[in-house]
Amino acid sequence: xxxxxxxxxxxxxxxxxxxxxxxxxxxxxxxxxxxxxxxxxxxxxxxxxxxxxxxxxxxxxxxxxxxxxxxxxxxxxxxxxxxxxxxxxxxxxxxxxxxxxxxxxxxxxxxxxxxxxxxxxxxxxxxxxxxxxxxxxxxxxxxxxxxxxxxxxxxxxxxxxxxxxxxxxxxxxxxxxxxxxxxxxxxxxxxxxxxxxxxxxxxxxxxxxxxxxxxxxxxxxxxxxxxxxxxxxxxxxxxxxxxxxxxxxxxxxxxxxxxxxxxxxxxxxxxxxxxxxxxxxxxxxxxxxxxxxxxxxxxxxxxxxxxxxxxxxxxxxxxxxxxxxxxxxxxxxxxxxxxxxxxxxxxxxxxxxxxxxxxxxxxxxxxxxxxxxxxxxxxxxxxxxxxxxxxxxxxxxxxxxxxxxxxxxxxxxxxxxxxxxxxxxx
Length: 426
Hints:
Elements (H helix, E strand, L loop, with lengths): L8 H8 L3 H8 L4 E6 L2 E7 L6 E6 L9 H11 L1 H22 L1 H15 L5 E5 L6 H6 L4 E7 L2 E7 L4 E7 L9 E4 L8 E4 L1 H4 L13 E6 L2 E11 L6 E3 L1 H7 L10 E6 L5 H10 L4 E2 L2 H42 L2 H9 L4 H36 L8 H27 L3 H6 L1
Parallel strand pairs: 9-11
Antiparallel strand pairs: 1-2, 2-3, 4-13, 4-14, 5-13, 6-7, 6-10, 8-11, 9-12, 10-11
């Protein structure tokens, strides 16, 4: 509504085309009651020298045509600082909520990075059990892939340009339970090999320098050129190779004499579920389900914390914005009464208020847009995975604008419907 602090009533009357005679009645004396009767403003003035009432009828000059939007723009400009404060507070609350909703993407990115560095965490290893057909049980599970039988092999030769080492026996071992000193476990179809520290020292005393180097593996008259992907912690001479290379070792071996079964869980989220189901069936699988469960619980707690904090920030932001808007509107009742007294119809006053609300909505949308764009820019700068599509961006802006428009409409409803005489007394 029209601010009362920056323009006098006479200035407002001149702008709206009301006669100076009518205004003079508001400017004289303190004890006056103003009412409207038959489209006329009636002033009742209590005189100090006697306890009697003087009633004067003043015919209002019809107000000249004034643009409601133009008046709304002037009002908005006058209270611009308060509206800017409301818009910033509300937009920050929206930004926090969007950031919270995007925390799922951040967690997924963290899991993806974790999987890149710990490629064996989805791997499982089950020793052969004559009582159960473990291989068949794992093969029919749609959540698993890369299921194959493993065997003990003999006389494996590892060599570089400077040294050669013979592994008399090589037993299949679980990958997921090993921790890495350097690098990562071999990835499938990458022709890689990981060594234990004791074996790596036989090729280079500085074992970390072996990462990325090539080692030739010979088995059954076949040679494989493999790249060292990592060094894992174990107190004996051993190695792991990529699954595709390991499968070639076992071609032609007797299916009934396998030592263990290897499998990989397709989705990271199913690692714990697969392990728990195998445990219920009394199949002992060596995997990293405990570590994964701990990590998932931590991520879930972080995401919940993000949601709670963001929700609280949004609630406080909306509460503060509503309080400021209510305070602003409570100071404008007199100006509403004056507009009605000057002959403005209710629909014109409503248009002025609605236009002002639309301007506030537009300001909220602009500030929210800048904040969301800034968030996206910072996220890309620091490689934070916050993916906000164009549809989500537009939906966020429209939602924030509609919410602030609805809040303002509810607050202003009482103001518009207030009677002129009551408004002038506030």
